[in-house]
């Protein structure tokens, strides 16, 4: 009806019974089936003019050419890690000319949406032109974790009991089986064990829904919020594809806890964004700091990397590489060496990380006096 007949949908999840109360694509008989496949089949049958293709799997399993074929990408992902990867991948598709300007024909807009209870947001990202998802990473604090000693010895919250069940009891009970968070049977086992532990310590509040939330880091979804944010995302996509109206610039926030209220604002680009800018970062460190300590600071700092690898930009010498295993083993001795042994003061390093897809980060290291 909007003259957008060709749609691809990709999702790793399977349908859980808790999904049935906040959408109209799934039915009871679909529980356990692929979300993407059931949704595509329902839409194709309901709207014969549509051509929806389903892909059951991780977004990271698709190659660059898969994403290059689209005119617009809607991101409705449920975790920050996947959204960062998609953002870096699509930003990496933009060609930069010799003057440093992006080629407009290679820009694929991203419409990103997310909800959290009665709040939600939608934004339009024009890679290399507007701020990207990585520019706003500070708005998404790292996921909360629980101290293992508290979980194991002195649980005080229902979340502690759930964490104990899936981090400690599951590996002991099933050492050769990974917990499948999309399996109703596995999640029921975790819930029952967490409930038993909560009763031992007189802790109330362990429910199946809370178990799902802790294990999968899920915040309970509200149907009305989902409807409003998804409608905003689709509307922005139609505007981008048909030029029927001015698109959002660049962020809309919806707040429904005390009423129906929303506001828009421009999310500014970060000059040193590791994804959408070409600037080289500068870092001052102690010359005695080890390479391993530098890698740890890249994980825990504002870049929030996952598994960084480092090479010397000028010489191309590999300081540490996570993969393949043979190269990791060969470069592992460098981890305990001081930086002043491995590099020169003011030397530029190239840092790669799975979080940034094929994008690399330039980092100049200066030694503190």
N-end to C-end Cα span = 66 Å
**Mean pLDDT rating:** 90
The biggest sheet, with number of strands, parallel, antiparallel or mixed sense and barrel status, is: 5 strands, mixed
| SS elements, strand count | 12
Secondary structure: helix percent: 25-40%
Query: Approximately how much beta-strand content do the residues carry?
Result: 15-25%
Radius of gyration from CA coordinates:
23 Å
Q: Major sheet: order of its strands?
A: 3-4-5-6-7
Low-confidence stretches: none
* Overall outline: globular
Count of alpha and pi helical runs: 11
- Secondary-structure class: alpha/beta
Give the H and E element order. EHEHEHEEHHHHHEEEHEEHHEE
Brief summary:
It is built from 11 helices and 12 strands.
Describe this structure in words.
The N and C termini lie far apart (66 Å). The model has no long low-confidence stretch (mean pLDDT 90). This protein has 369 residues and is α/β, with parallel strands linked by helices. It is globular and about 65 Å long. The protein is built from 11 helices and 12 strands. α5 (158-173) packs across α6 (184-200) and α5 crosses α7. 27% of the residues are buried.
Q: Any descriptors?
A:
11 helices; five-stranded mixed beta sheet; single chain; 369 residues; alpha/beta; 18% strand
Q: Could you outline the blueprint of secondary structure elements for this entry?
A:
Blueprint: E1 6-11, H1 35-46, E2 51-56, H2 64-68, E3 73-75, H3 80-91, E4 110-116, E5 119-125, H4 148-153, H5 158-173, H6 184-200, H7 208-216, H8 223-242, E6 251-255, E7 261-265, E8 281-285, H9 291-300, E9 309-312, E10 318-320, H10 325-331, H11 339-342, E11 347-352, E12 360-367
Helix pairs in contact: 5-6, 5-7
């Amino acid at each position: 009806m909007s003259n957008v007949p060709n749609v691809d949908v990709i999702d790793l999840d399977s349908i859980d019974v808790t999904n049935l109360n906040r959408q109209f694509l799934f039915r009871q008989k679909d529980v356990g089936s692929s979300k993407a496949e059931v949704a595509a089949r329902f839409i194709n049958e309901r709207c014969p003019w549509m051509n929806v293709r389903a892909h059951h799997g991780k977004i990271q399993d698709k190659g660059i050419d898969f994403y290059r074929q689209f005119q617009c990408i809607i991101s409705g992902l449920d975790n920050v890690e996947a959204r960062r990867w998609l953002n870096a991948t699509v930003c990496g598709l933009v060609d930069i000319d010799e003057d440093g300007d992006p080629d407009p024909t290679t820009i694929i807009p991203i419409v990103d949406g997310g909800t959290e209870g009665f709040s939600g947001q939608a934004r339009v990202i024009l890679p290399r032109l507007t701020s990207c998802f990585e520019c706003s990473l500070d708005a998404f604090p790292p996921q909360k974790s629980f101290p293992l000693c508290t979980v194991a010895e002195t649980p005080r919250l229902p979340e502690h009991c759930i964490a104990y069940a899936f981090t400690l009891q599951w590996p002991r009970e099933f050492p050769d089986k990974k917990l499948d968070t999309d399996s109703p049977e596995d999640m029921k086992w975790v819930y029952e064990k967490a409930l038993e532990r909560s009763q031992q310590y007189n802790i109330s509040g362990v429910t199946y829904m809370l178990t799902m939330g802790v294990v999968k880091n899920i915040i309970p979804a509200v149907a009305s919020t989902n409807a409003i944010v998804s409608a905003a995302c689709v509307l922005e996509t139609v505007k981008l594809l048909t030029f029927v109206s001015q698109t959002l610039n660049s962020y809309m926030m919806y707040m429904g806890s005390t009423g129906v209220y929303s506001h828009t604002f421009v999310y500014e680009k970060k000059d040193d964004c590791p994804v959408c800018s070409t600037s080289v970062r500068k870092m001052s460190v102690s010359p005695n700091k080890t390479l391993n300590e530098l890698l740890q600071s890249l994980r825990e700092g504002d870049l929030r990397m996952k598994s960084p690898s480092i090479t010397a930009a000028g010489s191309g010498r590999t300081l540490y590489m996570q993969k393949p295993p043979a190269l990791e083993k060969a470069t592992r001795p460098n981890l305990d060496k001081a930086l002043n042994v491995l590099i020169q003061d003011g030397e530029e390093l190239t840092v790669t990380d799975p979080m940034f897809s094929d994008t690399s980060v330039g980092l100049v290291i200066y030694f503190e006096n």
